[in-house]
Amino acid sequence: MNSKDNKPTLSPDTWIDKYADYLFNYTVVRVNDSDTAKDLVQETFFAGLKSAKNFQGKSTERTWLISILKRKIIDHYRKINSKKGQAEVRMNFYDSGENEGNWIEERVPQSWENESEKIIETQELKAQIDKCIDALPEKYAMVFRMKTIQEFETEEICKELDITASNLWVIIHRARTQLRKCMEENWFNN
């Protein structure tokens, strides 16, 4: 949107309706935690409001917000990987009893089981995920792989498969729902 003097302007009052779902989906795939994803999207909106005067109109609002979000995601991982960040990340170890409470992550014993057991379990998990993806309808599997594994941009997938962005997100949602069900039935209940 442009004002009368052709200076680019933003419409922050529409951001949640227009971009929240897209930014959340973008984030949750990268951080694999919905609460963290929600927090990062909220931080993105706040940062966008604070730096709105810097918006030059060289990109769309959404692209501008995504660039802010990418920096928030990078900062999130930097914080976790720093010593200070590790000290702030606490792990819930016992839910009840005399040992109830959290451990600071950097003090948690790093290896509790045999390394070869971890490798085997990881391979088995990957094999089960692949089986569940293969069990999806062909179009769902293709879209899911392109978006989440190969990390194609939404626009590229839509162009390649001749579908709309909203159709893509419906397919992704349905694929994830079916994958979750498949994994619950074949992996978590074993």
Automatic annotation (TrEMBL):
| A GO biological-process term | DNA-templated transcription initiation
Q: Which residues form the signal peptide?
A: none
Keyword field: DNA-binding, Sigma factor, Transcription, Transcription regulation
Q: Where is the RNA polymerase sigma-70 region domain?
A: 16-79
Domain RNA polymerase sigma factor 70 region 4 type: residue ranges: 127-179
What's a Pfam family this protein contains? Answer: Sigma70_r4_2
Gene3D superfamilies found in the cross-reference section: 1.10.1740.10, Winged helix-like DNA-binding domain superfamily/Winged helix DNA-binding domain
InterPro entries linked to this entry: RNA_pol_sigma-70-like, RNA_pol_sigma-70_dom, RNA_pol_sigma70_r2, RNA_pol_sigma70_r4_t2, RNA_pol_sigma_r2, RNA_pol_sigma_r3/r4-like, WH-like_DNA-bd_sf
**Is Cell membrane included in the keywords of this UniProt record?**
no
Q: Which domain of life is it from?
A: Bacteria
**GO MF annotations in UniProt:** DNA binding; sigma factor activity
Key word Amino-acid biosynthesis present: no
What's this protein's family per the entry?
A: Belongs to the sigma-70 factor family. ECF subfamily.
Q: What is this protein called?
A: RNA polymerase subunit sigma-70
Which organism is this entry from?
A: Tenacibaculum todarodis
